[in-house]
Amino acid sequence: MKKITTTALGLSFALFDLLTSAQAQEIALKPALLTPFQVSVAATDYKGKSAVALEMPKMAVNEKTVAVLKDIDFHNGTIEATISGQPQANAGEGARGFVGIAFRVAADTSKMELFYIRPTNGRANDQVRRNHSTQYVSMPGFPWEKLRKETPEKYEAYADMVPAEWTKVKIEVKDETAKFYVNGASQPALIVNDLKQGKDLRGGVGLWIGPGSLGHFTDLKVTKLD
């Protein structure tokens, strides 16, 4: 009879734990499943999909403008969603249709990591604007202005996208590293190897919009690895 070593058993159990710990959850988004912070949430049908729409009813006091999913505790894994952003009709010239997904969100939103897109930049004639199509920020302490000034080009990148149309996004998170994929690409548009709130932070998953934006969200899937 073949002898099974302790090391082999350890590897087998480690592999089993890895495979069984991945818990995929597909979430049909509804306002009742979300806790809004400085945003309004409404159920809607948009571009052929059942979705939720986010807007800011008034001027926000900070960038923590997010609707957080109830009863989700996320550390490592993947988050997939289909999102759409566009400037509101009365938005200022700087509006870009900011829309994105926050993760590891603290219960009071005091901390969070965030990837978002600027859909109006995707096909702009200005190459610099194109280079700012995707963005990583971290709260508190690391808004886009600070990151762009101190480490230009490190936390934003180009990806093709169109305002007011559906854009598929995926976020892969492992400890202090996160990768952001756009529209089913096999390679990430943006890689962050130093998540600013640290590798141990865990928390909720949120739907985020920026100033002057109307955002739509659907097809949310969360896969937790721990």
Strand content: 35-45%
- The geometry reads as globular
- CATH superfamily heading: Exo-inulinase, domain 1
> What count of helical segments does DSSP give?
3
Fraction of residues in H or I helices = 10-25%
Return the CATH architecture: Sandwich
**How would you characterize the largest beta sheet?**
8 strands, antiparallel
Count of discrete domains: 1
- Compute the CA-based radius of gyration: 19 Å
Secondary-structure class? mainly beta
CATH fold-type name: Jelly Rolls
Protein name: 3-keto-disaccharide hydrolase domain-containing protein
Keywords: Signal
Organism: Dyadobacter jiangsuensis
Please provide a brief summary of the model.
This protein is mainly beta. The chain has helices at 6-21, 127-130, 144-150, and strands at 23-27, 34-37, 40-46, 49-55, 66-69, 77-87, 99-105, 112-117, 134-139, 156-157, 167-174, 177-182, 190-192, 204-209, 213-224.
How does this model look, in words?
This protein has helices spanning 6-21, 127-130, 144-150, and strands at 23-27, 34-37, 40-46, 49-55, 66-69, 77-87, 99-105, 112-117, 134-139, 156-157, 167-174, 177-182, 190-192, 204-209, 213-224. Strands 1, 3, 4, 6, 11, 12, 13 and 15 form an 8-stranded antiparallel sheet that branches. A 7-stranded antiparallel sheet has the order 2-5-14-7-8-9-10. Mean pLDDT is 92; it is low at 1-20. It has 3 helices and 15 strands. A hairpin with a 2-residue loop joins strand 3 (40-46) and strand 4 (49-55). The chain has 226 residues and is mostly beta strands. The chain has one domain (24-224): Exo-inulinase, domain 1 (Jelly Rolls, Sandwich). It is globular.
